[in-house]
Amino acid sequence: MTQQHSQPKSTETILKNAFAAAVAVADPQVIVPQYLAKIFSAGQEPTGRCLVVGAGKASAAMASALEAYAREHWPQVKIEGVVLTRYGHSAPTSHIKIVEAGHPVPDQAGMNGAKAILELTQTLKENDVLIALVSGGGSSLLTLPVEGISIDDMRKTTEALLRSGAPIEEMNVVRKHLSAILGGNLARCAIARGARVEALLISDVTGDAPADIASGPCAADYSTYLDALNIIESYRLQELIPVPVMTHLKQGAAGQKPETLKDIDLVGARVSNHVIATAYKSLEAAANYVKDYGYKPVVLGDTITGEAQEVGVAQAQLAREYLAKTNQADKPIALISGGECTVTIPAGTKGRGGRCSEYLLSLLAASADLPKIAALAADTDGIDGSEKNAGAWFDSDIRESAKAHGANPNEYLTAHDCYGFFAQFGALVETGPTLTNVNDFRIILLNK
Questions:
Q1: Which domains does the chain carry?
Q2: Residue environment code for 43-55, b if the CB has 16+ CB neighbours within 10 A, otherwise e
Q3: Which residues face 440 on adjacent strands?
Q4: Do 321 and 386 touch, CB atoms closer than 8 A?
Q5: Distances from the Cα of 307 to the Cα of 56, 423, 439, angstroms
Q6: Which helix (H) or strand (E) holds 54?
Q7: Phi, psi (deg, nearest 5) at residue 239
């Protein structure tokens, strides 16, 4: 039974602690050992060579946790490997090499690291074990283009997709079909050598499908070359995508290039994908936290996507509706949600911030008639978009300060400068890299 705390906390503290609870439940140091014990139970431990590879914002922390577990439980097993992570997201390891690289736009460091991962995987032998540590961000970090496509081609393709406002799932369909590793190609390499593959995945995508998490390096892919071409055409990007990329995709659609890994390729193969952390588990952890402080949590789900400003307006309306049907005797409500929004930036606009703080500023602007609500939105990896904050928050005091200083939220929204708005009122959420990543977190406190 949940016990309500007698000491009230400030709204700001409740918002920030709810976010902290959401992040903590996805901590690799806690969850990786738990799942290793399940996957490699008695009689299933690695016996031959154990190669560890991976990519993502949480992958270095996952590697560090794996090494600690192996030291205690597999002292005779030789651990080696390479893991890629975003700049600033490293963690200490002894045997697994950590490579920091560019994200979300890939760079040469990522390409070199991805090449090293593929070359190591090609040295596997029968009964060796490949452990893949995969989290959000892996799609950009594992940028090893197929022959004929350069890193510059990949960079231009990624930038065009980012600016188009295409959801991450569609971006990844394109990237899978340009990669020597994504779309199950890493597992395909290990399968060909008779190795066992165990992939541990921290999900930052709606639905938590292994094929979607970091573009599924060890999972069967449901998409095709034709899907990739259709996505590029739907956003009218044909003129912005480099010619070698378009040529490769058209050749693939014509059957002249091998498709990504499919279910039929996994028949008889020893390949398992384990989703060890999800956005929904994190939303539940935040719900349990606010319940202790007298709030009735309403988890709206982890699949709320769309243009960030539009989602902010929609959730302001939702808050309005919930407040309209409650009375003074009811508990205050906490609306909690996840899912990755998008921000479409017009040509010529630089913008500062990210999708979480843009959503939050939109919510603030759209809720002028709800002066008592408070809210926070932040990315669980600790970095929201172009700056170094995880997101932002506001309460009635922040709203009043903005009015007093003549800071019009709508003007900042037009300029896509949500960072500039919240920074001047000390309303940024700054955690630094959290070394995990289970997508975006949003909470609205509806106080009477």
A1: 15-21+280-446 (3.40.1480.10), 27-278 (3.40.50.10180)
A2: eebbeebbbbbbb
A3: 379
A4: no
A5: 24, 22, 15
A6: strand 50-55
A7: -80, -15
Give the pair of three-digit tokens for residue 73.
């439980």
Q: How many other CB atoms are found less than 10 A from the CB of residue 344?
A: 15
How many Å apart are CA 132 and CA 195, to the nearest integer? 12
What are phi and psi for residue 166, nearest 5 degrees? Answer: -60, 135
Give CA–CA dist 157/388, Å, rounded: 24
| Residue of 205, 148, 156, 191 lying closest to 338 (CA atoms) | 205
pLDDT tens track for 423-442 = 999 999 999 999 998 989 99
The half-sphere exposure of 420 on its side-chain side, counting CA atoms within 13 A, is 14
Beta strand segments in 129-265, E: 129-135, 196-202
Question: What's the pTM?
Answer: 0.85
Integer Cα distance of 48 and 71 in angstroms: 16
Candidates 391, 380, 370; CA nearest to 448 is: 370
The pLDDT tens digits for 184-237 are: 999 999 999 999 999 999 998 888 999 999 999 999 999 999 999 999 999 999
Residues paired with residue 96 on neighbouring β-strands, in sequence order: 81
CA–CA distance, 207 with 211 (Å, rounded to integer): 10
